[in-house]
């Protein structure tokens, strides 16, 4: 064996300060999690300790064994030493494609665990703490449509549309179960999802947290790369279902929102695929009726 899977949750993640250490290591899953408790050390990076019920979100990589020398140095870990800053342990990592075993660096010192990161995501924690004036957001489901924005009196926050965006590596399916049917979700399975890229003030982000049921653990904020034309926007906010179920047909009113929001804003082929996907689920919507 010349490679080993590694789960990362802090500065080794994409677009973070130490991600360069993983250069050449393929990312297996951008949306991955393990059981653990995440803390802000106050030193510019997070640390994690073991837990049986809380979750830590991050990314999964395939790393060549030779690269662990540099990784161990970064994490102040020497095999067999008792006073390591971190331990390197094996844990089960959960992804959209299934569960795998991987190495993860966890804290060996409680004195550096300064502030709990309640939602288990370093990127999300900093977004909520910093409340930036501008956040990019990728809508792929009903948020492509602006009717509910108007009803909630937040439509003024969604006026800046960067353009139609492409999210590579993910497919859109109706995997979030409600009493009246399924709701849209993205699955990291190598597909392509099209949608709308917005530039938002933080007030709109807070609205989305409530609309998407973040605090009730319906949808989880996630961070992805989205392409608009020739430009790639990094660490774009979107939403990913916590507990995926089997695909269910959405109710007509929800399917209407998706098609109405998508028409003329995604590619013609992708729009046709949305219609075909709904028809396969037994849902037929005619916007021109």
From TrEMBL:
It holds the Pfam family GGACT. Keywords: Lyase, Transferase. InterPro entries: AIG2-like_dom (IPR009288), G-Glutamylcylcotransferase (IPR017939), GGCT-like (IPR013024), GGCT-like_sf (IPR036568). This is Gamma-glutamylcyclotransferase (GGCT)/AIG2-like uncharacterized protein YtfP. Coiled coil: none annotated. It comes from the Bacteria. It comes from Cytobacillus oceanisediminis. One of its GO terms (molecular function) is gamma-glutamylcyclotransferase activity. Residues 6-123 form the Gamma-glutamylcyclotransferase AIG2-like domain.
């Amino acid at each position: 064996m010349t490679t080993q899977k590694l789960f990362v949750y802090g500065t080794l993640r994409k677009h973070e300060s130490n991600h360069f250490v993983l250069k050449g290591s393929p990312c297996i899953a951008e949306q991955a999690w393990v059981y653990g408790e995440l803390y802000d050390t106050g030193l510019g990076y997070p640390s994690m300790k073991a837990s049986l019920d809380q979750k830590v979100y991050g990314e999964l990589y395939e790393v060549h064994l030779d690269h662990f020398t540099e990784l161990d140095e970064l994490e102040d870990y020497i095999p067999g030493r008792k006073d390591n800053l971190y331990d390197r342990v094996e844990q089960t990592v959960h992804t959209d494609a299934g569960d795998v075993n991987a190495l993860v660096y966890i804290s060996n010192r409680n004195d550096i665990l300064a502030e709990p990161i309640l939602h288990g995501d370093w990127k999300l924690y900093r977004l909520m703490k910093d409340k930036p004036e501008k956040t990019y957001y990728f809508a792929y489901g009903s948020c492509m449509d602006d009717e509910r924005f108007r009803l909630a009196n937040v439509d003024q926050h969604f006026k800046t549309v960067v353009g139609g965006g492409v999210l590579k590596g993910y497919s859109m399916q109706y995997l979030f179960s409600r009493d009246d049917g399924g709701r849209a979700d993205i699955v990291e399975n190598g597909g392509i999802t099209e949608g709308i890229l917005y530039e938002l003030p933080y007030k709109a982000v807070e609205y989305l947290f409530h609309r998407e049921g973040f605090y009730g653990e319906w949808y989880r904020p996630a961070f992805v790369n989205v392409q608009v034309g020739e430009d790639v926007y990094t660490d774009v906010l979107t939403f990913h279902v916590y507990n995926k179920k089997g695909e269910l047909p959405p109710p007509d009113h929800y399917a209407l929102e998706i098609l109405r929001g998508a028409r003329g804003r995604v590619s013609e082929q992708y729009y046709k695929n949305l219609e075909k996907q709904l028809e396969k689920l037994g849902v037929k919507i005619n916007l021109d009726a």
